[in-house]
Amino acid sequence: MQIWKPSSRPITYAEWLESGLSIKQLVIHFWAEWNSVDRLVDIEVIKAQENIDLDIEYRSFDIQEKIAWPWLRDNERYGYVPCIVGFKYGEEIGHLIGRRFAQEYESVIKSWFSE
């Protein structure tokens, strides 16, 4: 059986430490294999992306990556999946926990990154 994963390119904890902090505008979908709601969130975030004309990188982070657990404990809201978080150069600028529809994701993401 193939395990479902979000459509956005994954970012590992090691990648986050190495290059995630230098990405100008980043949205990470924190997800877990056991959480079926993440599949619905993925669909809605994809729809929202279609209407956002900003230079934003979209990635996904599997909260089951054991090496990241101390970091996730320090940032426990990321573990309340489904969760999307906006970052500018590694600094969190907003987060949204729970499933929403595309219009709300679009509105929230635009508000995070509109200057």
Account of the 3D structure:
It contains 4 helices and 5 strands; from the N terminus they run βαβαβαββα. By secondary structure, it is α/β, with parallel strands linked by helices. It is globular and about 35 Å long.
Short note summarizing the structure:
The chain is α/β, with parallel strands linked by helices and 115 residues long. 32% of the residues lie in helices and 24% in strands. The chain is built from four helices and five strands; from the N terminus they run E-H-E-H-E-H-E-E-H.
Can you give the helix content as a percent range?
25-40%
Secondary-structure-derived class: alpha/beta
Number of strands: 5
* Number of contiguous helices: 4
Mean pLDDT: 91
Strand order of the largest sheet: 1-3-2-4-5
User: Largest beta sheet, briefly?
Assistant: 5 strands, mixed
Termini separation comes to 44 Å
Q: Estimate the global geometry from the Cα principal axes.
A: globular
Low-confidence stretches: none
Relative strand content? 15-25%
Order of helices and strands: EHEHEHEEH
Radius of gyration: 13 Å
Chain-wise SSE layout:
Blueprint: E1 9-10, H1 13-18, E2 25-31, H2 37-49, E3 57-62, H3 69-74, E4 83-88, E5 91-97, H4 102-113
Parallel strand pairs: 1-3, 2-3
Antiparallel strand pairs: 2-4, 4-5
Distinctive features:
115 residues; alpha/beta; five-stranded mixed sheet; 4 helices; globular
